Structure formats: C-alpha cells, structure tokens
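Example (one chain per record):
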Amino acid sequence: MTPPARDAFAALVLHRRPQRARVGLTLGFVRTFAVPGIAEVLAGTGRLAEAPKARAKATGAMMFALIGHGVDSPAGRGIVAELAAMHRLPGVDDELMRYVLACFTVCPVDFAGGTRAERDAATAFAADLAAALRIPPLPDDARGWMRGFETAGFAPSDAGRALWRAVAPLFAARLPGPLARHAPAFGAALLDAPLRAAFALPRPPLPLRAAAGLAFRLMR
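Predicted structure:
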C-alpha cells in the first residue's frame, strides 16, 4: 500500500475521528460474535469472557498499530504473525478471516463517517493485510459482501450471547460520565436488527436509539 493511501485511513481513525472510529471498531468486533463459528472460537479461549476490557483493548491496539504503521512495518509484521496464528486455529477458514477483516475495516470507517478517499484507503489497507495473511482479498464492494455473509452466517448461539454480555459494558469508556452506567443499553441501541436477533435482544425504544446515536456521533 502506498503511503498516501495508508495515511488517509490512518488520519481518519487515529486523528480526525478517533473516538468514533474506536466505537466503530468495537461494533465490528461485536458483529463477529453473531457468527457461531467465530463465537465458538473466541469463547473457547476463555480470555474474552474473563478479561473483556483487556482483550478488546489488545484487539484495538493491534488494529490501530497496523493502520498507523503499515502491514509491512516491523510492528506490522509482528501483528500479522499473531493474526496468522489465529488463522491456524481449528474451525477458522479463509471466509471467516475475510469476514473479520471486513468488520475491522468497514465498520470503523462507516461509523466515523469516512470520505470516499478514506474508504478507498481502508480498502487498500484491507487488500494489503489479506495478502500478508495469505487469504483471498475482499471484493471491491466489501460492505455488500459483508452483508451477504451475514445474511447467510448470522445465527443465535450461546457463545455469541455470552460474548455480547461480556463486551457490552465496554461502551462505557466511550460515553460521557453520567451515561456510562447505561453502557449496555446504549450499546444495544447501536445494534441493527440482525445483530439483535442473534443476541436475543429486544429492540430498544426509539428515544434510547436516538439518544445513543446522538451520544456517540457527537464524539470527535
């Protein structure tokens, strides 16, 4: 990936709208829980349920280091090796890895309100990371491919629901102090219908959905 492409994506998620990008990354992480095969792998390690804040922080740090320094940087090569080790876990195939990659690149840009240039930069980053992981690249319409994958792959599972319960409080770190204690409800209000169905969550009332959208989108 050329430096200008990397810089456009990095500028969005690290400098222009870092808080919104982090919420988007968290939502991307949550989306993977709705795929039973991924949820089983994540739950099977036990690490996410035991220390959700530390695990989510580590995941975010890995992605932002890759975005900021590049896949081919010394730091990036180390992270790619860690991700490749996940690819070798039983039950993790190329399509699951591609879906996770889509979630971690499409969702932060979408939630941060990225420009066309920033979306193109995210696409270039995803292509570089896919090549480094030796998995097929995402299609040009990564967002459309991701939604198609979800239509076929989302399903309720005990593991997925348990992971959502473990991670939902993490939205507190992105909320103003007085609202932090309502983090699970505000986080649920950001989920779309397919995610709510997978986690067996009721649709939050309209005022809560509106308040959640406003609270998170007022962030830088």
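Caption: The mean pLDDT is 85.
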